[in-house]
Amino acid sequence: MENQMIRSIFYSEFHPTAGPKIVFQVPEEIISAEEFHLMHIYVIPKKQLRNRTITLNFGGHRILGCPVYIEGPQYERNALIFNCCFVFDSSKDSSKYEKIVRKLSGYLTTLEVQHNFLSSEKKNEKLPAIMNAILNDLNKFGVCEIYIDPSTSLHLQREESVRDLVDVNDHDVPIMINKPSEGFENLDVAAKQVMRFIDGKRFVMVIALDADMDLKIVKHVVRLLVQHKICSLIPIFQYSNVYMTTPNLNKLIQDKNLQEQCLKFVAMREMIPCLRDVLQMYCSMVFGTTIRDLCAQLNPRFRGIHEERLIQFGLIHGLIRRLLRYPIRVPDFPYRPHRMNESIHLYNSTFSGRYCEDQIRLKGSKFLDLDTAMEIDPQIMTCWK
User: Fold this and answer.
1) Minimal CA–CA distance to 209: which of 177, 170, 169?
2) Which residues contact 65 (CB under 8 A, 6 or more apart)?
3) What are phi and psi for residue 164, nearest 5 degrees?
4) Burial of 92 (0-12, 13-18, 19+ CB in 10 A)
5) Average pLDDT over residues 9-32
6) DSSP symbols for 181-240
7) 8 A C-beta contact, residue 323 and residue 287
8) Are the CB atoms for 183 and 132 separated by under 8 Å?
9) Cβ neighbourhood burial of 345 (10 Å; 0-12, 13-18, 19+)
10) Which residue, 48, 83, 144, 263, has fewest beta-carbon neighbours within 10 Å?
11) What is the rounded distance in angstroms from the CA atom of residue 293 to the CA atom of residue 289?
12) How do residues 21-61 score in pLDDT, each as one tens digit?
């Protein structure tokens, strides 16, 4: 997510005597009076273009607006003509803000029709503060909610492109990596509720059950938290898991700051472990070795290392990755009947190589021990990846 994508927001209108002009701009002077004079016919265009999204590339800027005409005898020229525009660098893609600009124009139209918010000098002096809040919140969070008065609020949310969307699965475990800013927490009651249950252990489906919330809402909130770099997604922790190191482990050897963060994060209580022991734990993570095996061999608790937090830190910083098993049923393999085959049969449709073990465990009504299933049914093979 790119910071400070919106450079400026300005409110312009057609003044009865002065003609088109910028009334308010935050921050000021991004668009100069001279620049506006050269392009005002596109910002305050002919009536035929009202309520249409207009994108203008001019002077290194990309300007996005939606001109509005409100007709009425109370106005000097029988109409109030205005446009609240967003300003971006000309190289930026502004398409995800088009709905926001249209929606903002609709809000301002409603406020003017019902309360004379724009045409009253006493009321429209609130507009710069509102525009500034919109600019800051959309740049930081991609969403903003502003209360104009106790009974009127304005809610805007950026439309994310497909490449920006985070895929959140039922079995993903959200873990906090940054403290949410006060502005984000105040945006949504649902976000507050979900964050109460994010502890780095509960996976998304469990959070939905514990928070007594719809799974789709929980996924939406978690997606926003990940996009705003407030939390990260990691796999479910089990002692039967297998992990491997990545080339990023070199960063832990070279980066003193990362080393300090790691030792504090994985430490048992006040006992700060030795970096050598931490690196030995990470370097011992190879194919075929489970966390249970590592704990039996190296006894991390004795060395002051909390093994679960060690895994969490490694996943968050990309030092390690988990190897997942994808069961595949091979029908031509010799079949051996067993009394537990009936329960395994419930999962047959998932033994296709498309579902990992975490997904399979959440699909059935009963917990499936994959190791046991493979032991009693030789038709089940696994692919590690």
Assistant:
1) 170
2) 43, 53, 54, 56, 83, 84, 85, 86, 101
3) -85, -20
4) middle
5) 92
6) PHHHHTT-HHHHHHHTT-SSSS-HHHHHHHHT--HHHHHHHHHHHHHTTSEEEEPPP-TT
7) yes
8) no
9) exposed
10) 48
11) 6
12) 999 999 988 999 999 999 999 999 988 888 889 999 888 89
- What pLDDT was estimated at residue 9? 96
The whole-angstrom separation of Cα 295 and Cα 307 is 8
For residue 254, the number of C-alpha atoms closer than 13 Å in the C-beta half-sphere is 6
- What is the distance between the alpha carbons of residues 172 and 179, in angstroms, rounded to a whole number? 20
Q: What is the rounded average pLDDT of the residues 186-194?
A: 74
Could you give the CA distance from residue 258 to residue 261 in angstroms, rounded to a whole number?
Answer: 5
Please report, to the nearest 10 degrees, the dihedral formed by the alpha carbons of residues 80, 83, 84, 85 taken in order. Answer: -170
Cα–Cα distance, 125 to 117 (Å, whole number):
9
Q: Beta strands 173-176 and 231-234: pairing type?
A: antiparallel
Gap between the Cα atoms of 235 and 5, Å rounded: 32
**Cα three-residue angle 142-146-149, rounded to 5 degrees:** 170
Count of beta carbons in the 10 Å neighbourhood of residue 71: 12
Between the CA of residue 302 and those of 44, 267, 285, 310, 323, what are the distances in Å? 72, 11, 18, 14, 26
Can you tell me the distance from the alpha carbon of 332 to that of 347, in angstroms, rounded to the nearest whole number? 18
With contact defined as beta carbons under 8 Å apart, do 24 and 12 qualify? no
- Where helices occur in the chain by DSSP H, the ranges are 33-43, 98-115, 121-124, 127-140, 182-185, 189-195, 204-211, 215-227, 249-254, 256-266, 275-283, 291-298, 307-316, 341-345, 357-363, 370-376
Give residue 207's pLDDT band: very low, low, confident or very high (50, 70, 90). Answer: very high
Sequence letter at residue 97: Y
Q: What is the number of alpha carbons within 13 Å of residue 99 lying toward its C-beta?
A: 10
Q: How far apart are the C-alpha atoms of 7 and 94, rounded to whole Å?
A: 12
pTM comes to: 0.62
Angle at 170 between CA 169 and CA 175, to 5 degrees: 75
